C-alpha cells in the first residue's frame, strides 16, 4: 500500500471476514506469558519518531484508516437524528472533491458503532450501503450487570440486526487470575452472538500491567473472540501503543499456534491522523498486510475522521482548514 494504485481506488465495505472458533483454555500457555516491559516501551517509542509515509503515500494510508474505522457514537445524549448524521458521514466519509483529487472512486467506513437503542436508526440510515452496524453490549462500559441480562442484551442486538457485537469482559476475572471464569463468560457471549462477529473489549487501562493484558488477550481468543479490542473509550487510559504491541504479538502467536485469524481494534482516544498512521505502521510491521483489511483491523473512534479529512484537504489544497469544518454528527 504505497500509492493510490488500482487496488486502492475503491475502499468499500467487504464481506465480513474469517471467524475464530476458539479452542479449549490452555492454562499452561496463559501462565507462561512473560513481558519484557523495557523492550516493549522501546519498540513502541520508535513508532511516532518515524517519518515514513508522506505525500500521496500518506493520503493512501489515511484512506485505509477510514476504510478500517468503526465510526462511533456512544454518548448518553445520542439521538436518532445524531445517528442518522453519523451514518451519512459513514457513507461519504471524505468530501467528493477531495476523493476525486486523490484518485479514489469510493470510500466508506468499516462499520458504524452504537448503543443497542440506536441499531434501528443506524440500519435504516445505512440501508443499501453494505456498511455493518456494530453494537456495544453486555452492560457496556463496566460490564457489571447480571450475566443473564448481558447475554439477553447480545441476543436482542443480534435480533435487531447488529452484525458485530462489542462485548466488555469482567475485569475482575483478570485481576483475580480466574482464567476459567473469563473463558466461560466469553464462550457464552460468543454463543449468544451466533452469526454476529464478537469483538472482546479488554479495557486494558483497568487490567494492571502488560502481562495481564497479554493473558486476557490469549484467553479471549481461546474463547472465540473474532477481534480483541483495547478499550471502551471510557477508561482513564485507553489505546496506547505499548498495549497495542503486546496484543498484536498475542494475535500473531495465537495465529501461528492455532491457524486461526483474530482481528485487532484499538479504541479510545485515537483522534489524530498521525496516531492512526502509527497504528497502521505497527500493524503492518507486526502482522503484515493481511491484517490491514477491515475484516481484521478496525479503529474505534468518534472524532478521528474529522482530523483525517482535514489532513486530506491539506494534501490536496496545501492549506489547513479549521477543525470545525469537518464535523461528524
Ligand atoms: O469504541 C470506540 C470508542 O468508544 C471511541 O472512543 P473515542 O470517543 O475516544 O474515539
TrEMBL record:
<keyword id="KW-0456">Lyase</keyword>
<keyword id="KW-0704">Schiff base</keyword>
<dbReference type="GO" id="GO:0005737">
    <property type="term" value="C:cytoplasm"/>
</dbReference>
<comment type="pathway">
    <text>Carbohydrate degradation; 2-deoxy-D-ribose 1-phosphate degradation; D-glyceraldehyde 3-phosphate and acetaldehyde from 2-deoxy-alpha-D-ribose 1-phosphate: step 2/2.</text>
</comment>
<dbReference type="InterPro" id="IPR013785">
    <property type="entry name" value="Aldolase_TIM"/>
</dbReference>
<dbReference type="GO" id="GO:0009264">
    <property type="term" value="P:deoxyribonucleotide catabolic process"/>
</dbReference>
<dbReference type="GO" id="GO:0016052">
    <property type="term" value="P:carbohydrate catabolic process"/>
</dbReference>
<dbReference type="InterPro" id="IPR011343">
    <property type="entry name" value="DeoC"/>
</dbReference>
<dbReference type="GO" id="GO:0004139">
    <property type="term" value="F:deoxyribose-phosphate aldolase activity"/>
</dbReference>
<dbReference type="InterPro" id="IPR002915">
    <property type="entry name" value="DeoC/FbaB/LacD_aldolase"/>
</dbReference>
<comment type="similarity">
    <text>Belongs to the DeoC/FbaB aldolase family. DeoC type 2 subfamily.</text>
</comment>
<protein>
    <recommendedName>
        <fullName>Deoxyribose-phosphate aldolase</fullName>
        <ecNumber>4.1.2.4</ecNumber>
    </recommendedName>
</protein>
<dbReference type="Pfam" id="PF01791">
    <property type="entry name" value="DeoC"/>
</dbReference>
Amino acid at each position: 500500500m504505497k500509492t493510490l494504485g488500482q487496488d486502492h481506488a475503491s475502499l468499500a465495505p467487504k464481506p465480513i471476514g474469517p471467524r475464530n472458533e476458539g479452542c479449549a483454555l490452555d492454562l499452561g500457555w496463559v501462565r507462561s506469558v512473560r513481558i519484557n516491559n523495557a523492550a516493549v516501551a522501546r519498540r513502541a517509542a520508535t513508532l511516532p519518531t518515524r517519518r515514513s509515509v508522506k505525500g500521496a503515500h500518506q493520503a493512501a494510508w489515511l484512506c485505509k484508516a477510514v476504510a478500517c474505522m468503526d465510526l462511533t457514537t456512544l454518548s448518553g445524549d445520542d439521538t436518532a437524528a445524531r445517528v442518522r448524521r453519523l451514518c451519512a458521514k459513514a457513507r461519504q466519509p471524505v468530501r467528493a472533491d477531495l476523493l476525486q483529487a486523490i484518485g479514489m472512486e469510493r470510500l466508506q467506513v468499516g462499520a458504524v458503532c452504537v448503543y443497542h437503542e440506536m441499531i434501528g436508526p443506524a440500519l435504516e440510515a445505512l440501508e443499501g450501503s453494505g456498511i455493518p452496524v456494530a453494537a456495544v453490549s453486555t452492560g457496556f462500559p463496566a460490564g457489571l450487570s447480571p450475566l443473564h441480562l448481558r447475554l439477553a442484551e447480545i441476543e436482542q442486538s443480534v435480533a435487531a440486526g447488529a452484525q458485530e457485537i462489542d462485548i466488555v469482559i469482567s475485569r475482575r476475572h483478570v485481576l483475580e487470575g480466574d482464567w476459567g471464569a473469563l473463558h466461560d463468560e466469553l464462550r457464552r457471549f460468543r454463543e449468544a452472538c451466533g452469526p454476529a462477529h464478537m469483538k472482546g473489549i479488554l479495557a486494558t487501562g483497568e487490567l494492571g500491567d502488560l502481562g495481564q493484558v497479554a493473558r486476557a488477550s490469549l484467553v479471549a481468543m481461546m474463547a472465540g473472540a473474532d477481534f480483541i479490542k483495547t478499550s471502551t473509550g471510557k477508561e482513564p487510559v485507553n489505546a496506547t501503543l505499548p498495549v497495542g504491541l503486546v496484543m498484536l504479538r498475542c494475535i500473531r502467536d495465537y495465529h501461528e499456534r492455532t491457524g486461526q485469524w483474530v482481528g485487532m481494534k484499538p479504541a479510545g482516544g485515537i483522534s489524530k491522523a498521525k496516531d492512526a498512521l502509527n497504528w497502521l505502521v505497527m500493524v503492518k510491521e507486526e502482522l503484515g498486510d493481511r491484517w490491514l483489511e477491515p475484516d481484521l483491523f478496525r479503529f474505534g473512534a468518534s472524532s478521528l475522521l474529522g482530523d483525517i479529512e482535514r489532513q486530506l484537504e491539506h494534501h490536496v489544497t496545501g492549506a489547513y482548514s479549521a477543525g470545525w469544518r469537518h464535523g461528524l454528527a
